[in-house]
Amino acid sequence: MRSSDAASYDAIVIGAGISGAVMAERMASQLNWRVLVIDQRSHIGGNCFDELDADGIRIHRYGPHLFHTDREDVWQYLSHFTRWQPYEHRVLSSIDGELVPIPFNLTSIERCFPEEKAQRMISALIARFGEEARVPILELRKEAEPLLAELADFIYQKAFVNYTSKQWGVAPEAISPAVTARVPVVVSRDDRYFTDPWQALPADGYTAMFAAMLNHPAIEVRLSTPMSEMLRFDWESQRIYRREGGEESLFTGKVIYTGMIDQLFAADRGALRYRSLRFSFERKDQPWWQPATTVNYPNDHDYTRITEFRHLMQPEPAAAATTVVYEFPKEFDPAAGDEPYYPVFTEEGQHRFDDYAARAKAMSQLHCLGRLAQYKYFDMDDAVANALEAFTALEAAIRSKSAGGESVPHG
Question: N or C: which end of the chain has fewer CB within 10 A?
């Protein structure tokens, strides 16, 4: 990451998370552009930021991030910037005093029901759906067979509905069927939370991976820098001005914006709605706290889950203590310093977003990218893929202009 000087930039990237880092790296390495990356936080990596605590345990400051993908292109791309530590995520859920695997599988059934009934339920599942099937709970709830109907209702009530209600801040009856449909029942003893062919953690942490992505002589990174210190958008004239040293100058390069899209317009058509999270980190004076990385608590507490980071580390740290984090969902409140995590999709919110997106698209220099700017939920690998696709489209447009004899503007 290069030191600042007075030269111009071809692109300015707002946000040093997944979307911003991928775009910055691609523009610098593939287009030979000079790129400035700014972030209002004091670190790179966005919500993937991790660091070692006093006991040498790598903690994820914004909740656990477990990388998994079925896209080889994403895996190969990120592999240029990190070594990988194999890791397959496993989750337990506290149900009626038992810790059972989630997604619900055959072992879960055996732990939640008397032996004879559990075996009859398992036999009914296999007969109806076949071994190794992954059956959406919504589909299972349509079954008329009494044992399967009883099982479906148990899983829905005990493992899913209260967890989801806390996560999204809605009454159980308001939970969308589209959300319910994603919850599988696994007709096997496979207790992995994800089944993607590539599952791993960056061996030296996510922060180190992002540092490698941004470690290019044509990339400059400025942290603790709000966008308003560097740029001003004049929506009436469709121009962008760069601020530097108390002066403004017209900026004609590209701007990649990865923040909340409504903030571009000071939410003048109304704020978009998000869910947020509050994290409570605790150091425990014992080597291990729980038997799995994550234990869900759907029914018993205000928090939804506890994650113990020591499970993520190989080799195991020598510390005699461990660190856990309790996760409390809440409504996003910027006045409280909350971070926006999940878009809350409503018809009104979608119309509002569509309006903001159309206004942003009218400024041809500006490209809105990522979960907050596109008001869309992305897993980590989806965010990488989305940014790579956005770069491919940008590169094609740039090369087309160059081939047509048009000059590519610089800021």
Answer: N
